[in-house]
Amino acid sequence: MPCCPPITAGELSVADSEKMAAMFKALSDAVRLRLFSKIASHLSGEACVCDIQDMGVSQPTVSHHLKKLREAGLLTSERRGTWVYYTVAPSGVAGMPAMLDLKR
After folding, report:
1. Alpha-carbon distance 32 to 26, whole Å?
2. In this predicted model, what pLDDT tens digit does every residue of 48-83 receive, in sequence order?
3. 15-44, pLDDT tens digit by residue?
4. pTM for this structure?
5. In Å, how far are 20, 50, 56, 101 from 93, measured between CA atoms?
6. Using CA atoms, how far apart are residues 34 and 56, in angstroms rounded to an integer?
7. DSSP string, 67-96
8. Do residues 58 and 22 make contact, with C-beta atoms less than 8 angstroms apart?
9. Kind and range of the H or E run holding 38
10. CB–CB of 20/99 below 8 Å?
């Protein structure tokens, strides 16, 4: 379920604006946006961290960016043995286009 009403429905609440700002802020970084895209477009619908580490930055930096995406509600993660698998959090992502819908 999307978090926020369309922007044209009225002024956002403080809570809704903070939640959406965190999501947009998380995606405003080019490396994070590429990571998010890589996970979202992965054939199986999920991506092992071992498959998405080659981003041109160090492994700790990739981990930091994945953490920020998780904290913003855009990704979920599951540890399986040594590896962590990431998927896009549909409920978080659904709120973004719904909020930006300018139809009245």
Report:
1. 7
2. 988 888 888 888 899 999 999 999 999 999 999 999
3. 888 888 888 899 999 999 999 999 999 988
4. 0.82
5. 10, 24, 25, 14
6. 11
7. HHHHHTTSEEEEEETTEEEEEE-HHHHHHH
8. no
9. helix 30-40
10. yes
